[in-house]
Amino acid sequence: MYALLESHVYLLAFMASFWFNVCITDLLKVFAGRLRPDFLDRCQWSDLHHACTGDPRVIMEGRRSWPSGHSSIAFSTLGFLALFLAAKGGLLRPPVTPAPHATPATHIADARWTPLTPWVKGRVWPFVVAVAPLLVAGYIAISRTVQHIHHPTDVISGSLLGFTIATLAFRNYFTWDGTPRSPLVHLDDDGGDYTRLRDADHA
């Protein structure tokens, strides 16, 4: 049952990241877009009519270069997946505050925890798994410049926008250790009983 709850929260967060990004990206394209690198080819300029003779829809899309929609969508979705996998792998866990009864050795161990700790301990796979979606998103973003559909600044802006929205969505629905921010908290692994608890208790 907990897996079902976690999947439900994940889908909510994922869709929130996706749709918020789509709305913001489209608004920016309409109000602040610029010409794409291939605009002249889309325009099909006529010296006779002194106007573009291409498909009006293609021409209009050629005026909406900034920010890159493919880049923002890639990082708002795959970036969200990367954050989720990193949290589940323990890569985003903040330093643990030592308990009052902790020994000096425990205090030192807790204080020295960093996101690179898994590397030191030989836990490389969580890092590799978490970075893989970001590599795919980066490939999608770079391909837009290779195909001369976007300027480099379009891609950079779109990538930053998408990953920022993904981070905000993740933090709104999950804690840094990957626990869902839900009023339902699993208590009994055998009986599947749940109780309500404040989100602050999971932060």
Secondary structure topology:
Blueprint: H1 2-32, H2 39-43, E1 45-46, E2 51-52, H3 56-61, H4 69-88, H5 104-111, H6 117-120, H7 125-146, H8 152-173, E3 184-186, E4 194-196
Antiparallel strand pairs: 1-2, 3-4
Quick structural gist:
Residues 9-170 form the Phosphatidic acid phosphatase type 2/haloperoxidase domain. With 203 residues, the chain is mainly α. It is built from 8 helices and 4 strands, in the order H-H-E-E-H-H-H-H-H-H-E-E.
Give an overview in words.
With 203 residues, this protein is mainly alpha-helical. It has one domain (2-33, 66-94, 118-201). The chain has helices spanning 2-32, 39-43, 56-61, 69-88, 104-111, 117-120, 125-146, 152-173; strands spanning 45-46, 51-52, 184-186, 194-196. Helix 1 (2-32) runs antiparallel to helix 4, helix 4 (69-88) packs antiparallel against helix 7 (125-146) and helix 4 packs parallel to helix 8 (152-173). Residues 105-109 and 186-203 have low confidence and may be disordered.
